[in-house]
């Protein structure tokens, strides 16, 4: 059994925002992974990143997305995909063929820089 834990992450500062994820997920090896992150800010003006941290290892950036742009870590782009639902302010991380080596704490996080669509 492969376990995947996620936590809620709050950014600090003058404009504190809330990002909400499920507390934990457990899936079998080879199964797909879907984790949704619902946020309180405009997903059209800030990147939301997905990051993971396997036990005993450092943080690993998976990718980030906002309206009109998506960036992925090259070595993980065939395993993971990111989608964005502007109406519900939800950013979804999907993984395929998950293996025990993918067990980690998965975080969603808002980038502090503000983007403006021209």
TrEMBL record:
User: What region holds the Ig-like domain?
Assistant: 16-108
Output the GO biological process annotations, alphabetical, semicolon-separated: adaptive immune response
Keywords recorded for this protein, A-Z: Adaptive immunity, Immunity, Immunoglobulin
Q: Which SUPFAM superfamilies match?
A: Immunoglobulin
Q: Which domain of life is it from?
A: Eukaryota
Pfam families associated with the record: V-set (PF07686)
GO CC annotation terms, alphabetical: extracellular region; immunoglobulin complex
- PANTHER family with a match to the protein in the record: IMMUNOGLOBULIN HEAVY CHAIN (PTHR23266)
What is the protein name given in its UniProt record?
Ig-like domain-containing protein
Query: Taxonomy-wise, where does this protein's organism fall, top ranks first?
Result: Eukaryota, Metazoa, Chordata, Craniata, Vertebrata
